[in-house]
Amino acid sequence: MKDIWNSRYNEPEFIYGIEPNNYLKSFLENTSKGSILLPADGEGRNSVFAAKNGWQVDAFDYSRSAQDKAFILAEKHQVSINYVVSDILEYAPNKNYDLIALIYLHLIPEDRAQFFKKLSQWLKPDGHILFEAFAKNQLKNSSGGPKDPKLLYDLSEIKDDFKDLKIKEICETEIMLDEGKLHQGKANVIRLIAQKI
Predict the structure, then answer these.
(1) How many domains does the chain have?
(2) In this model, does residue 2 exceed pLDDT 70?
């Protein structure tokens, strides 16, 4: 799987574009600046946007090609991001965060349960989790995402994964994606904002 992603990210173009995810963008623009962690951040579009808007950015991905692209984008925008190469279950931060943003992070159920369980420990008091990823209903669409239903989400799973946090917003919704060549068209997604209290 790592080879597949390295190969995808080796392409000269940014396969998910260079603009930030809209859901994350809206949250960042309407929230006090702080520290943010972006797991599996790919080519860095979200990291770079956060840094441009005054956030202290930590990010990681298991693809070195993705990291290379993220640093190219950060240099173009003259911002600094702390972006490391790490497998999802091996990442261990040395601080806590005001925001952890999970943008199209699709994991097998065993890894998801293990990783999501750690996240509340990595938040500061009053810190937030922001989540957007494909719902199981995405299988009928051609706008991107895994074709294995086990890698997709439903509302009850996400509610359960973050039941220790105060869920401020959760929904399954249909949106139009325009994020590079691999996220284009009608999509069914689940969105969540939850807070550590």
Answers:
(1) 1
(2) no
Going from the C-alpha of 61 to that of each of 48, 124, 170, the distances in angstroms are 14, 22, 26
Query: Tokens 């202290």 label which residue?
Result: 56
Cα atoms found within 13 Å of the Cα of residue 95, Cβ hemisphere only = 12
- Cα distance between residue 38 and residue 61, in whole Å: 9
Of 22, 197, 196, whose CA–CA distance to 99 is shortest? 196
**How do residues 29-49 score in pLDDT, each as one tens digit?**
999 999 999 999 999 999 999
Using DSSP's 3-state secondary structure scheme, residue 115 falls into helix
CATH number at residue 60: 3.40.50.150
Q: Tokens 């702390």 identify what position?
A: 82
Domain of 181? 2-195
Helix then strand then coil, % of the chain, to nearest 5: 35, 30, 35
CA 48 from chain center: how many Å? Answer: 13
Span 67-83, average pLDDT: 97
Residue 127's region, left for phi above 0, alpha for psi from -120 to 50, else beta, is: beta
| pTM: predicted TM-score of the whole model, two decimal places | 0.95
**What is the amino acid identity at position 20?**
P
